Amino acid sequence: MSRFKRGSPGKIVSIALAATLAIGLVLLSVSPALAEVTNDVCAGCHGDVVEAFSMTPHGICLSKTVGAETSCEACHGDAVGHIEEGDPAGIINPAGQDQFGGQALCLNCHRTGGFDEWPFSAHLAGDVGCADCHSVHVGYEEAPKCTQPDICYGCHADVRAAAYMPSHHPVREGKLVCDDCHNPHGGAARLTAEATGRELCFSCHGEMEGPFIYEHAPVNEDCLICHDPHGAVADNLLKQTEPALCLSCHPMHFHATVVSVDGDFSTPQAPQRAGSSTPDSWKEGMLTKCTQCHTEIHGSDLPSQAISSGGNALTR
Question: What is the pTM of this model?
């Protein structure tokens, strides 16, 4: 016989609701995965990280998508086991994953065209992870981990040394940064931001592009045949000084092997231009800087006056 009198449905409903809540609590205690860990729980141990993260681009974006209360689990995964066991292995740490783990997590959101070639990039092949360069927990008011060029110099010590050469691009002066020329998230083997090094160079040095009537073949192929973009001892970022660089492709002028007049001389056409010569004068004159005569070394629209060159000596 029922303990309740007829006509008291309110009491029956109350007891049914209480029973339902009791069953729900039992299920939560048996199956922790059903629970949801909020950021406030994370802040119990990681208060400084949670506070800073709320002011970062990641924190602001996740608060609008997955919710401001549970944004930690969006990247670190289910945190119930981590909280119960207190074991760091019970939570996903993107900074501790290899190139097959942490990057995949980041690429879930970062799907723009700039990351299309990341799977084929030199950085990925070198086991460089996102967290090696980026710090996702740093707020706007703090200096980010990814500051150029220092973050790049951490691995590329040879490039840092080249930046201190007498001739260098103005990276050290703060007028350029590495990703003005390089795409760290993919691209060709040299990681150039454009299709080829030549086109990339012309984006700043347009006056060298042409087309010219009289062209210098290396300019049409690749600027890096003659130039070292990170820094060089020779002027104008040249890999070698003149004439050594030019003589690596061109034979020396035959005049350089001719023995010169030894003593004073004058010319019949212009006696006032008399001077003094040594047996090595031809050699000294023809083996100095080639660009003293061949001034338009990148190309020219004006024919040279030398007959033997057919106008293609790039002298004007």
Answer: 0.69
